Amino acid sequence: MNQSTLLPLLIALATATFLPPPTSALAQDIPISSAQAAVMEDQQSSVSDEAIVSSDEMQDQSSAAITVPGNLYTLTAIWLSVKEPGVVESIVQLGDNVNVGQTIAELDQELPRAQMNAAEKELAIARIESKNDVDLRFARVSSKVNQAVLERSMAANRQYKKALSKTEIERLRLELERSHLSAEQAERTKQTNLLNEQLKSEQVAIAEIQLSNRTISAPISGVVTEVNIEQGEWVNAGQPIARIVNIDTLRFTGFVDSREILPSEIAKSASLIVDYKGDMGRRDSAVDSSDAVDVTITFINPEIDPASGLYEIRAEVDNRDHRMYSGLKSILKLRREN
């Protein structure tokens, strides 16, 4: 065999040796080389490993905590206003700690105190008049006397003709009628005096309210953060004078991505991490849960913004130790509802 004939035979033999067996041969249990079997086993093992890794990644994603960045806000803060116009006699200082019922400011009280004293004296007079029933008792006695006189006169006239003139009988009847009317008038006067007593009592109550309005007290405990007036200034009714802030309870507000969790899937309890150092400004920043505090979800907005896919969430934070402050950035770690 010459060289030109031998070369094509060698190429054909080499190609047949390295080609993988056809699928039909494998299905029919045709023997294959050990090298080819090892290659196929490695490929199956690689596919299985990839499936396991993908499953682990999905499990990690489902169990990963959902973090929501947000801010802390003051939950209880009020402006105090005056109810009566007047001159300021005293006022708290900026930064004072106040308790419920503590005096915040006082206005001049000279005129309203004099008005209350006058109202109290008028009430005392009205009470004396309401208890005075002399006119009523006299009218009732007069009626009885006049009734008896008229009856005796008419009896004498029947026994002795013309014992009393007709004019005299009419006069006695008039006196009896006058005593009846006097009794009715005395009864109405008594009722009027009782109503007048009630009126004077209410006027005293009004005077007491006007006097008490000259003293402005704190409705909540907290810190005075703003003062708008000074001692000696004139203030009008309704004018705000001071602001009190209570940080015993703060409110967290943030926005949740609906692609991570839906409103119906959020549990009522969550944990909060406060950004004391200002290094938690990003959603993907690392979260250290060692200093987390438990909070209660108070509001979940059922409306999702169609443009951003976000919805609002709020939580109340117990801050009786005053470690946290309004305005701090924080991260809320949500839990899924079981």
Low confidence ranges: 6-11, 13-30, 35-40, 50-63
- Termini distance? 83 Å
Strand order of the largest sheet: 1-8-11-10-9-12
Shape: elongated
What Rg do the Cα atoms give? Answer: 49 Å
Q: Main β-sheet, in a few words?
A: 6 strands, antiparallel, barrel
Fraction of residues in H or I helices: 40-55%
Report the order of strands and helices: HHHEEEEHHHEEEEEEEE
What does this structure look like?
- The protein is built from six helices and twelve strands.
- The chain is of the alpha+beta class and 338 residues long.
- Among the domains are: 65-75 and 246-334, Elongation Factor Tu (Ef-tu), domain 3 (Beta Barrel), CATH 2.40.30.170; 109-212.
- A six-stranded antiparallel beta barrel has the order 1-8-11-10-9-12.
- Helix 4 (110-131) packs antiparallel against helix 6 (166-212).
- It is elongated, with a radius of gyration of 49 Å.
- The two termini are 83 Å apart.
- Residues 6-11, 13-30, 35-40 and 50-63 have low confidence and may be disordered.
